[in-house]
Amino acid sequence: MASRKFLTITAASTLLACLACTAVAQDKESVMKMREQTMKTMGGAMQATGKFVKNEGGTVDDVKAAAARLTEAASKDIASLFPAGSTGGESRAKPEIWTSWDVFAKQWADLKPAAAKLTEAAASGDRQQIAAAMGGVGKACGTCHDQFRAPKQ
Ligand code: HEC
C-alpha cells in the first residue's frame, strides 16, 4: 500500500516536473521572439529616421513616430527581454550578458536618454539636430551589439 502510494506520488511529480520543463522551454522561445520583435522595431525606427536624415523621402512625422517607438522599446524591462540563459539555437546573445549583467543593463538604460534626445530633435524638425540625435541612438545600439551580440553564424 505504502509503496503504491509512493509510486503514484513519484509519477505525479515527474509529470509535474515535465510540464514545468515544457513551460520553461516555451517561455524561452517566446521571450526570444519578443525581444527579436523589440529589436526589429527599433531597427525599423532607425531606418525610418535615416530616410529623413538622408533626404530619401522620410518626413519629420516619420521621425517623431520612430522616436516614440524607440522610447517605448527602450522602456521595456531588460531583465524580462533577456532572462538568464535565454540564448542558444539561432540566438546571437552572448553568455557574457549574464556574467556582466550590470554593464549590459547600463547600456540598455543608456538607450532611453538617447531616444529622448531624438524626440526633442524631431520636435525641432531640424535635419542636422535629428542626424546628431540619431547618431547618439546608433552609438547606444552599437556599443551593446559590439560587446554582447555574437557575429552572424
Ligand atoms: C543592451 C544591449 C542592446 C542594446 C542597447 C540594443 N541591442 Fe539590439 N540586440 C542585442 C542583442 C544581445 C541581440 C541578439 C539577440 C539574439 O540574437 O537573441 C540584439 C539583436 C538585434 C537585432 C536583430 C534581431 C533579430 O533577431 O533579427 C536588431 C535588428 C537590433 N538588435 C537592433 C537594435 C537597435 C536598432 C538598437 C538601438 C536602437 C539596439 N538593437 C539596441 C542587444 C542590444
TrEMBL record:
What does the UniProt keyword field contain?
A: Electron transport, Heme, Iron, Metal-binding, Signal, Transport
Output the SUPFAM superfamilies linked to this UniProt entry: Cytochromes
Q: Which InterPro entries match?
A: Cyt_c/b562, Cyt_c_II, Cyt_c_prime, Cyt_c_prime_subgr
According to the record, the signal peptide region is 1-25
* Pfam families, A to Z: Cytochrom_C_2
User: Which top-level group of life is the source organism from?
Assistant: Bacteria
The protein in question is named Cytochrome c
Origin organism is Azospirillum oleiclasticum
Origin organism lineage:
Bacteria, Pseudomonadati, Pseudomonadota, Alphaproteobacteria, Rhodospirillales
